[in-house]
User: Fold these one by one.
Assistant:
Number 1:
Amino acid sequence: MVDDYLVRAIDEGRQARVFAVRSTHVVEEARRRHGTRPVATAALGRALSAGLLLGANLKGEDLLTLRILGDGPLGAVVVTADARGNVRGYVQNPGVDLPPTAEGKLAVGAAVGRGYLYVTRDLGFGAPFTGGAALISGEIAADLTHYLATSEQTPSAVVLGVRVGAAGEVVGAGGLLVQLFPDPSEDLAARLEENLQGLREISALLAGGVTPEELVARVLAPEVPTILGRTPVRFACTCNREKVADLLAALGEEELSALARERSEILVRCHFCGEEYRFGRAEALEVLKPMKAE
Ligand SMILES: [Zn+2]
């Protein structure tokens, strides 16, 4: 299968920025790691793609966190992304499944429910900045469009899609983000709206082999977009054994020694990626050594 990547593009008149991502492998890896059922795969996959698209505006070491906190059965959907195409995420209840909608679509809106969406940008200095908006449908793309318009005052269009195959596997996933600069021409706004109508089935297009460059071209057609950059994207977590050991140490000597006495092994599972870290009794006590030396 072909690799996942994101492209950034601009129109001739420099009135709109367009981002397109193919995230089929990213979402399939998330599904495999978290054991998500189809509706959870779709919700998490849309959020992962959204994180990558929003992350395309980050620089250097900046980090972005997208939290979708609905009252539906899925619970929270949380994603973090950086400027280098790394994304990770989880859904609180990955085993949730719902019957399809009347149109035969995965019932993401019902599974997410109503609540709030928050975007936090940690720019590496000062306090992280968080903006939020109410969820308007739970379908994620519409919620994000609403958030960008109200909280960030950026007129945008967002298209997200995940196609799940017969065995629950991800066969196509990705998204589009179109951001308009102030005072775009009426001609461009109308053209974008019309073109985006034809891109609603983005997951089917991606599953059929349409590339991110072709998606961008379809958004701006008939004009030919200028591609500004192409970034490979991947599911990548920042957890490792040392960080988990630090977390255990943070429990404090008393609690950690008690845990080590109670069980032969301490198991810590990373929320974001599902990776499991096992510490035997001796290893757990080893974690305490640097503390004792202080
Ligand atoms: Zn992890």
Note: The longest helix spans residues 38-55.
Number 2:
Amino acid sequence: MKNNLSIVMYHYVRDTQKSKIKNLKALHIKDFCNQLDYLTQNYNIISGQEFVSYLTDIQINLPHKPCLLTFDDGYKDHIDYVLPELLKRQISGCFFPVTDTLYNDKLLDVNAIQCILSIIDNQKPLKILENELVKNGFNREKLLTLFKENSFESKYDNSNIVLFKRMLQYLLPKEVRKKIINSLYDTYVQIPQYELHKDFYMNFKDLQTLKKNGMTIGNHTHTHQWLEHLTKSNQIKEITKSMDILKKYHLISDKWLMCYPYGSFNDQTIDILKSNGCVLGLTIRSGINEIKKNYFNLRLKRIDTNEINKL
Ligand SMILES: [Zn+2]
């Protein structure tokens, strides 16, 4: 039997006025509440566990118009703003923390880059990056060729911003990326990373609170890299390290959910997941899913909160 499943994707949900980083692309808590009201009126919000039971137990069926709510990256917003609103409405969500943030007091690259761009996105960010790289011994001509060879389209960002992000997320060598991110962060953001870290991410206690309140926690890897650009053995490390930590703290069960950082995966990722008990994989491709029982649903599409009108 086939079923249609809608999955909504959330990242930051906060009182944007109070955010230390202005211009961060966050959903305002009031808009989040309005979306929840719309979704609860028009859909049946199901929990991660209910969906896993449906996939693995022949007896269990899904309600009409099922919808799953997903929250990526383990932001403090999720415990401060999201959990109370879900509990008020007696619904459940799936949360995907990045386990390295539980141990380390630095921002994830993805977030440090967002903070930098929140300040320089109107000031020719590629030029700023180019100058920084030249200072670090890169040849300007070669860099411009690299820029030309890598052009990307995105629904949300202009092509220069996408290229700026990708250069610092995977195109440049790892050590160079780290160095440039830290240098640009210190120049433009000027709030110590450990301070923002406390504000940005949930800790173990928060995750335990989510779990106690019936929420589902899943795997978003240990350090949030583009998996398709890693070797298979590094992909295994990223996935199993996170899985082991979440299991050790009883935060995930044997049949668990995966959410690909940046929506990035390849066939090797799928093999790793299949042999490690993962039953569901979330991409960032936009759309509604036709799902099947007893089948690995490892390429599920989601609707971003900004595109909720597509539901
Ligand atoms: Zn993420």
Note: Residues 109-194 form one domain.
